[in-house]
Amino acid sequence: MYLNKLLCKALGALTVFAINIPAQSTTNSTQKPLRVGVLYENVQLSNLSGLDVLGFQTPEIVAVKVQINPDFEPLLKYTTPMDFLYISSLNATTITHSMYVEPTHTYGNAPVDLDILLIGGPDSEAVKEESLEYMRQASKNTKMILTTCSDAMWLAKGGVLDGKKATTNRVTLGSAGTKWLKVDWLDQRWVIEDGLFGGAQSWTAGGAGRAKFFYVNLMVTKLTTAGIDIRRSLVQ
């Protein structure tokens, strides 16, 4: 399928270099950028793979592909500008394999009215209280919250999933069920639930491999119905 081939090309080998969007190309640069928050703390790198799927829709990344292969140029007009906010502790935060990522915001100063909040977290027993308070506020104001693998337990610890259905890595489902009794944990690929008090819709996914398909499905079929303007950039 063309979509799968396109994603494999985009995610398989991407070298970073200066980007010059071709002057003759038409993009939707006048669209207000989506604000995508990435809440992370000692996260496994693969749990943030969905971030790459979302980011592939931006004008900057598609412009890279156009420079490599002009056949991608028609996709530029379907791209969606995005601003990425990295939310964590004050200092650079570790990601697996000793990678350090410096956040743009802390839990205390990050905006809570985002379009999307992607959560990638650590052992739920080691999370900081201020991160839980941020989640609670964001869940009332952000349009959509996404978790992958065991990261749903970070969200659960903040009480955001109370009374809701959710899923997590199959290996940790039993543990999650004994710790957060107010959450209805399901053994499913992913679970979609409406938010508390009319707030963020929650999407929880199982393992990181399943999450790639989860994010593709989200990107091309669901974001528009949630009031988020993601265009048909990859459905051609």
From TrEMBL:
SUPFAM superfamilies: Class I glutamine amidotransferase-like
Signal sequence residues: 1-18
InterPro entries: Class_I_gatase-like (IPR029062), INH-QAR (IPR052158)
Keywords from the UniProt entry: Signal
Transmembrane segments: none
Superkingdom assignment: Eukaryota
PANTHER family cross-referenced by the UniProt entry: ARAC-FAMILY TRANSCRIPTIONAL REGULATOR, DJ-1_PFPI DOMAIN-CONTAINING PROTEIN
Protein name in the entry: DJ-1/PfpI domain-containing protein
